[in-house]
Every structure is written in C-alpha cells, then in structure tokens.
Amino acid sequence: MGHDLTKNNIYHTMIINNKKIDIHQYDTFPKTHLNSVYKLLSSELSEPYNIFLLKTILKNYSKIALMSLYNEECVGVVISKITTKCKNNEASTFGYI
Fold it and tell me: Do residues 94 and 81 lie in contact, with contact meaning Cβ atoms separated by under 8 Å?
C-alpha cells in the first residue's frame, strides 16, 4: 500500500463474497486516488462532477468522505458537504451526500 493508505485510516473492514473491502476515512484525502474516484463518479452519477469541484470538496470536507478499497483500487466512495449560512441572524446548517 502507498504511504497515504495506512491501517490508521481504516474506518471499517467488510467481507463481501470472500473479498476484504477496507473503508478508509482521512484527515486529508489522498491525491493518489483522486483520478480513480473521479472515474468511478463519472461512470455512476447522472450529473457529471468537474474534477476541480471534486478536488475542492475533498480538500475542504475530507473528514466526512469515505473511500472503499479492494486490492488498492477504489470500488466505492461517499462524499459529503456541510455548509452553514446565516439568514436574519439565524444560522442554519445543511449538507448533501
């Protein structure tokens, strides 16, 4: 495994069809997997993400992103974003996955 992928980053491990899937959570999302995440999202999402938007979200919200790896290949990803806005001196927090 690369230097970004250590056991300290493993959030959970699952066994599916006798395959070990490690789910990682990071303080800083590893740039080494950015292209594979982009490729996965581009093939699965109805609305394509711009790679620069993806980089920005992963940079700013990496602590709430999860990535599943099998044999060091990205096989799943959950990317979240949380935003707080003030309106009429009242804060409201919202986000999306």
Answer: no
Q: Strand 10-16 and strand 81-87: pairing?
A: unpaired
Report yes or no: 58 and 81 within 8 Å, Cβ to Cβ: no
**pTM score, two decimals?**
0.69
Quick: pLDDT tens for 4-16: 555 668 888 999 9
Q: Which domains does the chain have, with CATH numbers?
A: 14-96 (3.40.630.30)
CB 85 within 8 A of CB 92: yes
**Burial (CB count <10 Å: 0-12, 13-18, 19+), residue 66:** middle
